[in-house]
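We emphasize that the prediction below concerns an isolated chain of 738 residues; any contacts that depend on oligomerization or on bound cofactors are therefore not represented. The input was used exactly as deposited, without trimming of termini.
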Amino acid sequence: MMLHFSNPAKLKTKRLESCVCVYSDNFESSVNEYHNVHLHKIIFEEIYGAGDPSTLMELKELSARRRAIEESINETSVTANATAREMAGGLTSRLEQDLLKLEVYLPLLENLVFHATSSGNGGSGVELKISWSSALSPTRFSGCKFLHNDELCFEHGMALFLYGAILRERAQEVLLRGDLAQSGELYRKAAGVYHHLFQQVLPSLKPAVGQERPPPETNPSLSNVMNFICLAEAQGAALRKAVEKRMSVGLLSKLDCGIKELLDQAYSILNSFNGKCEIISSKLEEFICFSRSLHELRSKRYLADSLKNGLKKGDVGLAIGVLRMALENIKGKTPKKESWQLVFKKEIKTVHEMLRELEQENGFVYHERVPIGVDQLPSPESRIIVAAAPYNPKRSETKLVFKKIVKPRLSKSQTILGRNKPFLLPFTTSILNPTSHTPDTSFSPKKLKLPKKRWSASVVMSKGKPLESSFSRKDWFKLTYLEGNSWIWDVNGLKILVDPILVGNLDFGIPWLYDAAKKYVKNFQLSDLPELDCLLITQSLDDHCHLKTLKPLSQMLPNLPVIATPNAETLLNPLFSSVTYLEPGQSSEIMGRNGSKAKIQATAGPVLGPPWQRPENGYLVTSQQEELTLYYEPHCVYNKELLQKERADILISPVIKQLLPGFTLVSGQEDAVQLAKLLQSKFIVPMRNGELDSKGFLSSIIQSEGTMESFKELLSKELPNAKVLEATPGEPLEISTP
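Result of the prediction step, given as a token string:
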């Protein structure tokens, strides 16, 4: 039996009161009709002006279908159960009835979204104020609070999220009745809906203006979390079917371990964007954590059972060790929720009984040694046999035609309201004089509110006389340092993520030896990333190829183009579908979403291992017009002969050495100066990849050599015209050419 979490389906919705304005061909008559403005309930035919009868009919149908959904999920319908069953074609399940309503509503909504966005003229001067409550906000933010967003995409996203949630609830309902095949199919279908939301719908949704905390259901990453939860539950249904068919316990162990792996992925994504922000209810995290623990325990029970039935000597001892370790790991992990407790207690009791029987048999019959250490015990293998059923959105075939917005004719004195813009009257306005109904064109500086803008440091590189304006530049780099070895580079709008560490700490899998956290951009998460065009990996070790970050990133962006060292092939191939591995001297061209291009050429970096091993990578990144080139190698280790003919306007390099006894971890100082001289660099952007909050034995013996000031002094002697630009973590540093 699996745990169940029904909160995602507890969404509520309502239609707000809104202001509707009547337009006129004449400015003065529009002002005089101000008093005719009145309140309406939001219905689609009043929001979108229908241009023909078929459009009006479809909009009315859309309103009616949405009203039925609203009344059902808000439990405000006055329709008798028998009538509702008759209207739903004899369906008795409330969940089935709601699914049918959504499956009729969604194609109509898809059609409206398509025509309203493609025409760019889907509005008639009225804000779309359909509101939804959140079912997954933290307790103190939930309750009956409704949040609205004026984008049609908000309604689209929330309706799809509700559809996925009800599919999942229906799957649970069917599961309890024993129809495992249909239940698994419904879970896979729900996973497909959430995956579609994650990839296609929610990324384009903009937050409402002034909205403090958007509903977590509008976060694409949460839909990805729900996708993996539904897949885990689908595999749970498959596991129950395998139990009924008396499949081997070895297979059952693998399937249970596969469920845990899917939940691990959900938990990793949840942590990557939730973290300290607490934007998601802790109940969801508890559900995932306890479900992981339950399936880990169960997979080890099946593993012990398969070992017990094995023919090898020593397997009984291994089985006992596996069960003891499983029970040790589950200590203190009992959930508070009563229904979950019952499932946990039943499983723990089963494991205890199995362990007692094995210990008795071993004491009387087998006399096998029981391993103690974790490294001496086998671990369950994982096998995932389910995949999301692709959600293919349908839309109605009606071609929607909207009335064009009438633009008022403005005199010169009236252009303060905005030339050639529709005249929209709010209920209260300082522009109208209520006694004369004529526009107040007086201007006061106190009425003018300028938006606050945070400006980043900008350096304009000019060949010849200084530039008068940076707007005439052709090529530019915006470099945002995320501490450690991590960067975001914006090359003429093409965005490259470099060696990211954005989930958890840097510990190389041995936190007792070394464990480091960022100092300044601690709260920067995967969900804060801009739309990326490329992922760039320099080395195969954890401080560059950070699997805690790359696994959830690959789930968010599985098709993200990646350029990497071939040394990382075994790590990246299971994660990303489009990886280009460059040997030193090889190059590849990438194209951004905005059409910008950049050339990336690999150079030889440090050799991490025996001398015959392939070196790691540095990179030369050249902008589209070939007027700016950046060189990056995060250890300041380079092959002088291979770089002899290369030039780089911008050099990103560590400048302070990091030393272990008898070994240089990261070079810098005079080596960085010679590298800048070799590349004839004009700008040096120092890295501070050793300045992390670290602990562990290694951190206590790492020593720094040199300072920023000593580097600048060395540089001034060799390259007096070069400039040192120190990047502030989290803030873009811009370098551009005319």
